[in-house]
Amino acid sequence: MTESDLKIIEERAAKATAKPWFTTGESYGASHGLEYEVTDYENGGIWLAHCQKRDDAIFIAASRTDVPALVAEVRRLRALLTRFQEQWLPSASDQEKL
Predict the structure, then answer these.
(1) Disulfide-capable partner of 23 in 57, 63, 95, 98 (CB 3.0 to 4.6 Å)?
(2) Could you report the average pLDDT of every consecutive run of 10 residues in the chain (98 residues)?
(3) What is the pLDDT of residue 21?
(4) What is the DSSP letter of 30?
(5) Rounded (5°) CA angle 44-48-51
(6) Distance (Å, rounded) from C-alpha 47 to C-alpha 37?
(7) What is this structure's pTM?
């Protein structure tokens, strides 16, 4: 995954309805029977998704905070790896001196 990929993911997350998202209790939809809803209570209770499976609703709701956290963690680990490589791996010019 490139930095460009991370930026695209980050932009998608930034354009989504503000966090946090929540799953509601069970409800009965007219066409699908038992449903679980993903909503954003802080922005007027906007319905974001309807799911027939509770675990899907929980996953969707958690993605609003999980995705930005994962992007940040990838960047943190890449920076750590770069610092490690700079400190412990010889550069091309150092290898030429050997």
Answers:
(1) 57
(2) 95 88 70 71 75 87 93 97 90 61
(3) 86
(4) T
(5) 135
(6) 7
(7) 0.75
Where do the DSSP E strands lie in the chain?
22-29, 33-40, 46-51
Write out the two tokens for 14.
Answer: 């930034």
Determine the Cα–Cα distance for residues 59 and 27; give it in Å rounded to an integer: 18
Residue 35's identity, in one-letter code, is E
Angle at 28 between CA 23 and CA 34, to 5 degrees: 70
User: What was the pLDDT predicted at 94?
Assistant: 65
* pLDDT given at position 7: 96
Q: Indicate the pairing of strand 46-51 with strand 33-40.
A: antiparallel
- Neighbouring CB atoms inside 10 A of 49's CB total 16
Name the DSSP letter for residue 17.
P
What pLDDT score was predicted for residue 28? Answer: 59
